[in-house]
Amino acid sequence: MGAIRTTCAYCGVGCGIAAEVSAGVSGNGDRAVSITGDRAHPANHGRLCSKGTHLGETVGLEGRLLSPMIGDCQASWNEALDLVAGRMRDCIAEHGPDSVALYLSGQLLTEDYYAVNKLAKGFVGTGNVDTNSRLCMASAVAAYNRAFGEDVVPCSYEDLDAADLVLLVGSNTAWCHPVVWQRLEKTRERRGTKIVVIDPRRTETAEQADLHVPVAPDGDIALFNALLAEMKRRGLVDGEYLAAHVEEDEGFWQNLRSCRAKSRHVGAEPGVSTSLDTNGGVSEETFTQLCDLVAAHPRTITLFSQGANQSVCGTDKGNAITNFHLATGRINRIGAGPFSITGQPNAMGGREVGGLANMLACHLGFSEGERAEVAAFWDAPNICAGAGLKAVDMFRAVHDGRIKFLWIMATNPAVSLPDSQFVREALSRCPTVVVSDIIADTDTGRFAHVRLPAQGWGEKDGTVTNSERRISRQRALFPPPDEARADWKIVADVAARMGWGGSFAWNSAADVFREYARMTALAKVRGKVLDLTAYATIDDAEYAALEPFQWGGERPLSQGYPTASGKARLVSVLPPAPATSAEFPLRLNTGRYRDQWHTMTRTGLSPTLSQHRPEPLLEVHPADAEALGLADGGLGRVETESGAAVYRVLVSPGQRRGEICVPMHWGDAMAGAGRSNRLPSQAVDPVSGQPGYKNSAARVVPV
Ligand code: SF4
């Protein structure tokens, strides 16, 4: 058997994989697969990182959920599906459609997402469909929508190969998107590209950069406003591009000038400002170095990630970045643009089909016309009335009893959502919790009334979209074990029991994909960039052999912007007020480890990956450690208004004074200590609904 070309299960880089299966193809026995990078895949050209390389260590069946469970009892699929459909039907009849909610995941394939979104928004009639992608890139989506009129990433990976300057904002790229980092290193070698890291922490990526800009937590808006004001002062704004392609908020330039003019406050370290007012807390010397680099290198890419997005002002940060690119004409040109890089393998596919509470389907909204068109396309009896509840609000509604039926697919919110103790309380109160997962024992699964066994990576068949809008096939390597089913099929089976089987009568993932591709015609006629209509009639063999392709092409906005005027928009954004608290004087940041993924339900299975950082560490600046009485290797207890967790201390000069950092991965099912998402509050960005994981008020006491 030759290599099967598929894609990695982890991050939004979306690397192609060549998988050689040597055991396990004929049943549930031992499985063995050797993984190499797919040289023909444009996202990685054969490169892989440690997580992708060791995927073969995670395909065993140990710990898998292999049959439906009602409570602790094994059940047949018929019993479980009848129960799920019956409870959902009763809930709708008694409490209305908005008492039903579905919480999804960027691990789902596009076909799965499409099926759930259709069931919920067209047939149940609820807008309460949201996803863990809300925690990852919702602010970038909102910023793109405000600036461009549609959620369109305007760059491609090839632009990284052609850039002269790359600004990495809130991204520990070397750890979190390692293949993009490898690509940048090559570009640097080849053409001397300069790399700047804008991050409060001196991360492994910052260590290797040409310049580290240690911005204050949430100082990015002030920094990018100041940068643009300085570019204007130096005569580097592109007046021609602005006149032809961009509209401005009233008072836009005045707003920038006032940001730059505010007074500076000198902080604990010489030359470093703690105020967000000027330069985002960056010293004048570093700010000037940044401006000089930007002025000298018009081919600039700004790659931004969770450090920018996971903030109560994440949307404004995204717009501060897009403002800079629009005003300097560094967009829609080779090697230039604001490039949001997603965390998950299929965050983008979920966005396309509408798997977010604030969009209906296929980049369409909730206007009367759009709802009517979608209802007609689906032949839907109960098109939802409007936007639903975003992730954090959804779990608040579960907690206070407005939502009484919750179906969670392929995600572990009892660990991953902020204020996770509140989330656990919410789950324990909910009359019906259904969990579709591949793992039998997860922190969330412990609250489920019904658990449904889903197919995992290496068993599923469908498509994913990576950060550069490239759709690739994920292909099955092994037959599904025992009773595991595809998520889209589970949804269709429930729909059939609700009396809607005719609209969900798909025989394969290819059937679902074709329907989704056909539906993008609705977006196309409204002038959107999203358009897959060329794939609406491919046959099964063509779907099976589908090569990776980008919707919108390499530079999708170069023919104009999908707004009413055809122009993009400069959006005035102001820095937030600096947050201070006498009781909780430290700023808490959370992040990822190089070799772990999400809540470790998959990477925790790999002995190799567990060697990198086997336990959760609390990183503290040496001066803070001394002042707090914390010893390197000792234990520290982090406390916030929401909760507390204990960690081993790592004294690290890479932290700014007054700021600490912990990893996000550990939950009770994995370790019990270091459960970091107990700590952040439920505060979210008012536009995107994305939680502010990166900047919580905290204190630390030695244990
Ligand atoms: Fe997988 Fe991301 Fe690593 Fe590529 S960079 S191999 S997609 S985890």
UniProtKB/TrEMBL annotation:
Q: Does the keyword Oxidoreductase apply?
A: yes
Q: List the cofactors.
A: [4Fe-4S] cluster; Mo-bis(molybdopterin guanine dinucleotide)
User: What protein name does the entry list?
Assistant: Nitrate reductase
Instruction: Tell me the ranges covered by the 4Fe-4S Mo/W bis-MGD-type domain, including all copies.
Output: 1-63
Query: Which organism was this protein described from?
Result: Novosphingobium beihaiensis
Family named by the database record:
Belongs to the prokaryotic molybdopterin-containing oxidoreductase family. NasA/NapA/NarB subfamily.
State which stretch of the full-length protein is shown: 1 to 703 of 883
Could you tell me the superkingdom of the organism this chain comes from? Bacteria
Q: Which UniProt keywords apply?
A: 4Fe-4S, Iron, Iron-sulfur, Metal-binding, Molybdenum, Nitrate assimilation, Oxidoreductase
